[in-house]
Amino acid sequence: MAVRIVVDSSAGVPADIVKALDITVVDLHILPSPEGEKESAGGAGTAGLNALELTACYARQLERGGDEGVVALHLPPGLSSTFEAATTAAALFDGLVRVIPTSSVGMATGAAAMAAARLARDGASLEECEEIATSTLARSHTWVYLHTLDSLRRSGRVSATTAVLSSALGARPIMALDDGRLGVVAKTRTPTKACAKLAELVQEEAHGAPAFVAIQHVGARDRAERLEELLRSVMPEGTSVLVVDMPEALAVHCGQGAMGVSMVAGELSPGSR
């Protein structure tokens, strides 16, 4: 029996890693596009998980793990109602379910789940799994390059004025996620310059140390692989870079051509058991 790790589908942990580390993924709800509206990323938006759904999920995982405990990682409260629902559900299990506060999305959260799952697989306690997930998130940074602001504008994450001005100026923003909120950190005019800026941001936050970097993209594998090559050429030995599709739960907000870059400075799961 082992501590169970639960993450929602916004993390985008690749299926082979989910299987290898026995991580439980709970799918967020994808809302259909209104009839007649073109939506390039597969849907109109997302809806958070509710407390009843998460209560059932946590109960199943506690049963599977022999009540060793559950570490749960979900979207931050500023972006989804899922976190509040998770804390409500966790309160029913007398401390056996630990919902980790997150301020990021995508593979930053996925990396924390992976680190915790590796420890859980080796017999770590609930407290140890909670600690490694928390420390991994504390060492993480996430940036999003948006090829278009249309999808984000529809989701209400940026104003219509900002979207129109960016489009008129030909600017494609790179946004950082800080404390669950999106903010523009750079504006670029070409995808090539965006890749160079993303690599620069990763280098700055790594402070010369190896890092785990995940590049998630929406229909932009060639561009993501160019960024991968660039990162491998400029980052220290020991850095690992993963290129994966962006999960639909994020893609519907980011739109076609988007790239999300999540970085964890240092080793992904320090120490061994």
Compact overview of the structure:
InterPro entries: DegV (IPR003797), DegV_C (IPR043168), DegV_domain_contain (IPR050270). The protein has 273 residues and is of the alpha/beta class.
Helices and strands in order, then pairings?
Elements (H helix, E strand, L loop, with lengths): L3 E5 L6 H7 L2 E3 L2 E3 L13 E3 L3 H14 L5 E4 L8 H9 L6 E4 L6 H15 L4 H13 L1 E6 L4 H5 L5 H10 L2 E7 L2 E8 L2 H16 L4 E7 L3 H14 L5 E6 L2 H7 L4 E7 L8
Parallel strand pairs: 1-2, 1-5, 5-6, 10-11
Antiparallel strand pairs: 3-4, 7-8, 7-12, 8-9, 10-12
Keywords: Lipid-binding
Protein name: DegV family protein
GO molecular function: lipid binding
What does this 3D model show about the protein?
The structure is a single chain. With 273 residues, the chain is an alpha/beta fold. It folds into two domains: 4-138, Rossmann fold (3-Layer(aba) Sandwich); 140-265, Hypothetical Protein Tm841, Chain: A,domain 3. 40% of the residues lie in helices and 23% in strands. It has ten helices and twelve strands. It has helices spanning 15-21, 51-64, 82-90, 107-121, 126-138, 150-154, 160-169, 191-206, 221-234, 248-254; strands at 4-8, 24-26, 29-31, 45-47, 70-73, 97-100, 140-145, 172-178, 181-188, 211-217, 240-245, 259-265. A six-stranded mixed β-sheet has the order 9-8-7-12-10-11, sandwiched between helices. It has a four-stranded parallel β-sheet with strand order 2-1-5-6, with helices on both faces. Strand 5, helix 3 (82-90) and strand 6 (97-100) form a beta-alpha-beta unit. The longest helix has 16 residues, at 191-206. The two termini are 16 Å apart.
